[in-house]
Amino acid sequence: xxxxxxxxxxxxLVLAAGLPAQKPPARPAQKLPPPMGGVRAARQGALVExxxxxxxxxxxxxxxxxxxxxxxxxxxxxxxxxxxxxxxRQQLRFRAEMFNQLPPERQDVARRLFRQFNQLPPxxxxxxxxxxxxxxxxxxxxxxxxxxxxxxxxxxxxxEQRFLRGFADxxxxxx
Amino acid sequence: xxxxxxxxxxxxxxLSYSARRLxxxxxxxxxxxxELCPACREFRDGQRALWExxxxxxxxxxxxxxxxxxxRKIEEQExxxxxxxxxxxxxxxxxxPLAATACLVLVAGFISVNPGTVTAPVAETPxxxxxxxxxRALDDLEMLRQFDLVATAEDSSRSx
Lengths: 175, 160
Prior knowledge:
heterodimer; B: about 65% helix
């Protein structure tokens, strides 16, 4: 008898104590909008995917009015994109997403530097790509020291140094 | 080869050549033409000088508090009432009507001197816009394929 009374009382107490602590019914979780860079990158990605999946004839019609050189460049870039594995495409989209989150002026600097890079002879381009990989793997301070080193100045001409310095700056956090 | 400057055709060829985007075969043809054509040579030299000047040019760094000052300005603008925004922005432009009149007179003068030569600009089609967008997206992806610009040192072990 006593046991059942105390049992019921204990249960009532536990239930009563739980009442105020009970949370209001959960509302459906609000989805936060993705950052603008992500939206832009997603739109870019979707557009490129759409173009890679276009029928050759449709793509030819769309590019028909462009000068041959420009058309060829687009075709080549699309082919290069198509040749990537799904993992590589995903990684590239991730990079694009991060890149689009940079301030627009930094993005423009990168594009301008890359245009200059494209004018360099292919063998120098390869060297600069390797050097950039090395710089990217270094902590910011070491990166700066390497760029200021005599060895660096001896290996790259002023134009190449400017390019590498510019790209290395983009790796530093936005001030 | 027909001269790109005289015929106004293939002008894109000259620009692509100057930007070193032209393939070797077309470059060779164009170079052979330029040996004989002073106008194209002059154009090439001008473009070369321009590219070199652009290469030398370094954009001035943005001041560290630029973003903060910009956002404060935007906030101030948003807090103003609409009429204050309209009239406030006009108040510092007393010469605007005069400038607009001068432009109109100039345009009218130009049209009367060159009747029939002024044509409406060609409307940009949505398709052309999309081509430009995809071209820009592909350029960005190409750059990011070759250079991981946003990765940190820890990410460097992952490479494509």
